[in-house]
Amino acid sequence: MGLAADPHTGGVDKVELAGFLRSRRERISPADVGLAAGPRRRTPGLRREEVAHLAFISTEYYTRLEQARGPRPSREVLAGLSRALRLSDAEREHLHLLAGAPPDPAPGPPREVRQSILDLIHRLPQSAAFVTSATLEVLAWNALAAALMEDFSALPRRERNLARRVFLGPRPEGQRLYGVSDADAFARHAARRLRTAAARYPEDPEVTGLIRELRAGSEEFARLWDSHDVDGAPTLRKIFRHPLVGPVTVNCDALDLADRDQQVVIYTAVPGTPSEEALRLLSVIGTQRLDAVR
Questions:
Q1: Closest Cα to residue 186, out of 215, 212, 165?
Q2: Which residues does residue 265 pair with via DSSP β-bridges, in sequence order?
Q3: 203 and 88: one domain?
Q4: What's the rounded Cα separation, in Å, for the pair 111 and 247?
Q5: CA–CA gap between residue 62 and residue 49 (Å, rounded)
Q6: Which of 129, 49, 54, 63 has its CA nearest to residue 87?
Q7: Distance in angstroms (rounded) separating the CA atoms of residues 265 and 145
Q8: Nearby residues of 158 by Cβ (< 8 Å), 6 or more positions away
Q9: Cα–Cα distance between 63 and 48 in angstroms, integer?
Q10: Integer Cα distance of 141 and 153 in angstroms
Q11: How many other C-beta atoms can be found within 10 angstroms of the C-beta atom of residue 290?
């Protein structure tokens, strides 16, 4: 009498992999992938042969995977299945783990901001809100953030990076980073954030290039980098010294978007204060600035 095959061999959980593939296949309609539904579909979702065709593998091989008797799928096969089944990032990672092949690290910090987050920050007319990447690049902003800080739309992409701005940017009248009261604390935060990004994206040339540039151009950054700090207390309130409306005190809240490695930063003023009135005035002034301010 022969021994039954072990469904969990070589790091592959064949039973769970089969169930996961089947569940993802059944949730996709033919129309989702540009296929005609046809008159005779007895089961929901795509047929096995359709998934195999979309993933560029044989129907026999895919069928064996769904029956928990296929060989370990290669990374190329997993990439094809992820594409064919329209897996999210979390689902793609789960598929790789079930197949005993942990996914490669992301090549670099995600820069695409979800539409729902874009809609959110533009629905906060009395708050200055913006989104930063893992390297503190400003990816999206609303009108009040541009009025309070800078018209980011007028800047090339590399100049929208707040780490580059705090360590290498201009300092009119000795002030740094838009005259904000916690610029030194933000510099420490920036160094810690970049150290985390370097560990997460060690092969990304933009991350490594930015760190090299800051180490070469800023003694302060080099010192903070060499301290190896990775944690720190958040700043909950700060003051902007705005050239047109004067000091603006704001509460600072940062919301982590873990799936994108991004942060939504929201600045709000206490109702009934002069700072709230200043923000209201800025929303009218917009990004108009005097030449002397630039």
A1: 165
A2: 130, 254
A3: no
A4: 32
A5: 8
A6: 54
A7: 10
A8: 164
A9: 7
A10: 9
A11: 8
Query: How many structural domains comprise the chain?
Result: 2
Whether 106 is in a domain gets the answer: no
Per-residue pLDDT tens digits for 41-79? 666 788 899 899 999 999 999 999 999 998 999 989 999
Q: Are 190 and 250 in contact (CB under 8 A)?
A: no
If we measure between CA atoms, which residue out of 202, 160, 169, 172 comes closest to residue 187? 169
Residue with tokens 């990076």: 161
CATH number of the CATH domain containing 199 = 3.30.450.180
In which domain, by residue range, is 218 found? Answer: 115-293
Judge whether 2 lies within some domain: no
Q: Residue 139 has which token pair? A: 């990816």
pLDDT in tens, 130-151: 999 999 999 999 999 999 999 9
Q: Is residue 149 part of a domain?
A: yes
Beta bridge partners of 250: 238
The pTM (predicted TM-score) of the whole model is 0.68
Are 252 and 236 a contacting pair, CB within 8 Å? yes
Please give the structure tokens belonging to residue 34: 């540009």
**Are residues 208 and 254 located together in one domain of the fold?**
yes
CATH number at residue 20: 1.10.260.40
Output the six-digit token pair for 100.
Answer: 């005993």
Instruction: Give the CA radius of gyration of the chain.
Output: 25
